[in-house]
Design goal:
By secondary structure, the protein is mainly alpha-helical. About 80% of the residues lie in helices and about 0% in strands. Helix 1 packs antiparallel against helix 3, helix 3 runs antiparallel to helix 6 and helix 6 packs antiparallel against helix 7.
């Protein structure tokens, strides 16, 4: 299916897809060779703040554009089945990419990434199954809340890395905040997975 030139929301969503690997690249450049296993304090001192600030700004733009494209589509009546499918994909790529980066620096445990990835894979598969029965499943409230939690967690932790580079007093807070956000992110992903499973099971069961 081709994106119509006049469908601005789809082009914004496509831009978010392209921005995800750029964020990962900027984050990696900001590490200056540090990575998983390096002490967090050492990482914070050695990071290249310019690249990390650029990654942080790009992440913020991704989240802001996610709100904008949906609002434009609803206002102008250009909501499409392609948009309903690609928009969650863009969210998943941006959030999983951010979690991968944060896991690499030791702020997000591996098991959190596994839970989030499992949720995205299962829900994506369930959407395909529903589509085969003629139903395009829009983003549910639980999915939107999950996305907000992930966005908040990722933005907060990247922001803490940047701020802590300049303000040493923030450094002791990085690990405790990361631990709390890891639990919240995992719970949000599990609740959303159960909600989508039950909803799509009802849809498919009617066929």
């Amino acid at each position: 299916m081709v994106i119509a030139p006049t469908n601005l929301p789809l082009w914004i969503t496509f831009a978010r897809l392209v921005a995800s690997p750029i964020f990962v690249l900027l984050f990696w450049l900001g590490l200056r060779g540090s990575g998983y296993g390096a002490p967090v304090d050492e990482l914070i001192v050695d990071l290249a703040p310019g690249y990390l600030i650029a990654a942080w700004a790009l992440m913020f733009l991704q989240e802001a554009s996610d709100l904008v494209d949906g609002a434009i589509a609803r206002h102008h009546g250009t909501v499409t089945d392609l948009g309903k499918l690609v928009d969650p994909l863009a969210d998943s790529l941006s959030h999983v990419g951010a979690l991968l980066c944060l896991m690499w620096v030791g702020l997000i445990p591996f098991w959190v990434l596994v839970i989030v990835y499992y949720r995205e894979a299962v829900v994506g598969t369930l959407r395909v199954i529903a589509a085969k029965t003629g139903h395009v499943v829009q983003a549910r409230v639980s999915g939107k809340i999950k996305s907000l939690i992930l966005a908040f967690a990722a933005n907060t932790l990247v922001g803490f890395l940047v701020v802590s580079h300049y303000a040493e007093s923030f450094r002791p807070l990085v690990i405790p905040v990361a631990q709390i956000l890891s639990v919240v992110v995992s719970l949000g992903a599990v609740v959303s997975l159960v909600d989508y499973y039950l909803a799509i099971n009802r849809i498919v069961g009617k066929k």
